[in-house]
Specification:
By secondary structure, the chain is an alpha+beta fold. It contains two helices and eight strands, in the order E-E-E-H-E-H-E-E-E-E.
């Protein structure tokens, strides 16, 4: 996880969702995606305006259905997000639009992924090689921001890149 910006004001938080708190988890493909996950918080400044960005590679369920590990970690993540007055929240949610975690986020924040986009999985680069039609990569904003020209770009990773322009509302 990383944030790249010309002017980072502060990196106030790295929040971990750990498999075994206090111990480094060694990833093992045989453990069905079980791994420590992170929520990275960075404040950046662009043209004198501050943007509060959260990025995650969230807990994976092994499929499209939400599992108990995701529910457990979502409680923690939601508490962190709600402790900030404004939020740009993006990343791989590992849970699709139309399911409980995504839909709960959409109650509080604007889902900026256009509705006509039906997948963020790049079948040409994803290890399954299948045409998986799920939007799992998110760009949510609180009422302080507006996102425009949001789109996905293929051939960047096993998931498509979510690209757009975010401005502060006046």
């Amino acid at each position: 996880m990383a944030t790249f910006a010309n002017e980072i004001i502060s990196n106030k938080g790295v929040y971990y969702f750990q498999v075994d708190p206090g111990k480094l988890f060694i990833f093992d493909e045989k453990k069905n995606g079980l791994a420590d996950r992170v929520l990275l918080f960075t404040e950046i400044q662009v043209n004198g305006q501050v943007f509060k960005i959260f990025n995650t590679h969230f807990t994976w369920s092994g499929g499209r259905e939400v599992n108990e590990a995701q529910r457990r970690d979502y409680v923690k993540m939601k508490e962190i997000l709600e402790s900030y007055d404004e939020v740009i929240f993006c990343g791989d949610l590992n849970t699709p639009r139309g399911f409980e975690i995504w839909d709960d986020l959409a109650k509080q924040y604007t889902d900026n992924i256009p509705q006509d986009i039906d997948t963020t999985i790049d079948k040409n680069l994803h290890k399954s090689g299948k045409d998986i039609r799920l939007v799992v990569d998110a760009l949510f904003t609180s009422e302080h921001y507006v996102a425009k020209d949001v789109r996905v770009v293929a051939n960047t990773s096993d998931h498509m890149a979510v690209v757009g322009e975010i401005k502060r509302k006046s």
